[in-house]
Specification:
This protein is α/β, with parallel strands linked by helices. Helix content is 38%, strand content 16%. The protein folds into 2 domains: 176 residues, Aspartate Aminotransferase, domain 1 (Alpha-Beta Complex), CATH 3.90.1150; 234 residues, 3-Layer(aba) Sandwich (Aspartate Aminotransferase, domain 2), CATH 3.40.640.10. The model has no long low-confidence stretch (mean pLDDT 97). It binds pyridoxal-5'-phosphate. Keywords: Aminotransferase, Pyridoxal phosphate, Transferase.
Length: 419
């Protein structure tokens, strides 16, 4: 309560903005995930790995647009590409000069993608991949995983959402090889696709066990099921996306977030034998519209970010800092004897206040949400804009200096609140 009061006292302008916003937006909100107690900070600008709020406080940004902000803020190369594109007109109504280059760059880099199509969000990318899998196989069911998130209308956390699409979803336990195999075999005749993140990102950064993904790959091949990796978050975990790092090639991949360079973005791709069904010159081809599928700003910003900013070295570096930071935070938790763990891989990690080993989302059910809420407010008060659910996502401009300061603040938080 004391921390919450300090938060309120410190942010009068954000509070006023929040009260105003409630007049037109339900709860003052248009993205559920950006809401938290007592009210969310209104952000006015960002530079590198820093954001500034309406009351003038600067924070190290570790929410990183829920992983989409890999490039950090106001990257000059991306900004220049966007400004050039705006000067030349952004609503041209034809193929533009950027899209094929971005497509080629994605196909070159991500081994499971032989052809790609663009859309407007990660949600759309997953919907299109699933719809294509159903049309290609002539089957209807989709196997997904409990506590996974594939977009606002495919949310399987906390028992699902009343807004979920009416696809016939079967839900298995992540990392439970035996259970998934049983379910896949039982429904094989009508199972179109298995969709999962190669690390359960939104579900708490739970890494796949070494045998889990290879086993799914083998079963999908055997049963004629299309294996879809939702790499909307995880493609940032390796230069060649996480499937490239792990050497496991799904049939289809959904992309989004950072690949649009900060503009709205989604893409789905995969084997040419599936994707070429979208070739409009073909008889009975799959139609896929979308006014903004190739919007000039996303294509221009995306191309600049993907080909000029995200070098192999930059990707390696941000993921190495993440691995180091995760290890250091876990050491700090041990030192202070706090029952918590930081899970994840590379530039994505999630703090969970839970005792014992965590390999499945079910093991997170007992986590202490009061500790988490305290951590969130206290880290924000210490100048670190972290995500309320415990997510810490790094951006390319995040450096050793910020990492050291974050660790010192984390250590201080643990020392103050351990009792
Ligand atoms: N899939 C995963 C794993 C995500 O984390 C998200 C977004 O958080 C989505 C899909 C949906 O992407 P978008 O918000 O662009 O629709």
């Amino acid at each position: 309560n004391d921390a919450r009061q300090r938060f309120v006292d410190r942010n009068p302008k954000s509070l006023a903005r929040h009260i105003d916003a409630k007049q037109s937006l339900p709860g003052g909100n248009t993205r559920t995930i950006l809401w938290y107690n007592p009210f969310p900070l209104t952000l006015v600008s960002g530079n590198g790995c820093y954001v500034t709020d309406f009351d003038g406080h600067q924070y190290v940004d570790l929410l990183s647009e829920y992983t989409a902000g890999l490039y950090g803020h106001s990257d000059p190369t991306i900004a220049e590409a966007m400004i050039d594109a705006i000067r030349e007109g952004v609503m041209l109504g034809g193929p533009n000069r950027y899209e094929a280059h971005l497509g080629a760059a994605i196909v070159d880099r991500f081994p499971a993608i032989e052809r790609v199509r663009f859309c407007n969000s990660g949600t759309e990318a997953n919907i299109m991949a699933l719809a294509a899998a159903r049309a290609v196989t002539g089957r209807t069911k989709i196997l997904a995983f409990k506590e996974s998130y594939h977009g606002g209308v495919m949310c399987f956390a906390n028992g699902g959402s009343p807004l979920n699409l009416p696809f016939p979803f079967l839900l298995a336990d992540y990392n439970d090889e035996v259970g998934v195999e049983k379910m896949m075999r039982e429904h094989a005749d009508d199972l179109a696709a298995v969709i999962l993140e190669p690390m359960l990102g939104a579900g708490g950064c739970i890494v796949a066990k070494p045998n889990f993904l290879p086993r799914l790959r083998g079963l999908a091949d055997e049963l004629g099921v299309i294996l879809i990796f939702d790499e909307v978050q995880t493609s940032r975990l390796g230069y060649r996306a996480l499937h490239g790092e792990l050497g496991i090639l799904p049939d289809m991949v959904a992309l989004g977030k950072y690949i649009g360079g900060g503009a709205s973005f989604g893409a789905f791709g995969g084997k040419a034998s599936i994707m070429d069904r979208f070739d409009p010159a073909r008889v009975n081809s799959f139609s896929h519209g979308g006014t903004f599928n190739n919007n000039v700003l996303s294509m221009a910003a995306g191309l600049a970010g993907f080909t000029k900013v995200l070098t192999e070295e930059a990707s390696r570096r941000v993921n190495a800092i993440g691995d180091w930071l995760r290890s250091e935070t876990n050491t700090a938790l041990e030192r202070h004897a706090v029952a918590a763990v930081v899970l994840g891989r590379g530039s994505l990690m999630n703090l969970h206040f839970v005792d014992g080993v965590v390999e499945t989302p079910a093991q997170l059910k007992e986590r202490d949400v009061r500790w988490l809420e305290l951590w969130h407010v206290e880290m924000v008060l210490r100048g670190f804009y972290v995500a309320p659910r415990g997510l810490v996502a790094l951006s390319l401009p995040f450096g050793e200096n910020e990492a050291e300061r974050f660790l010192a603040a984390f250590d201080d938080f643990l020392a103050v609140h351990r009792s």
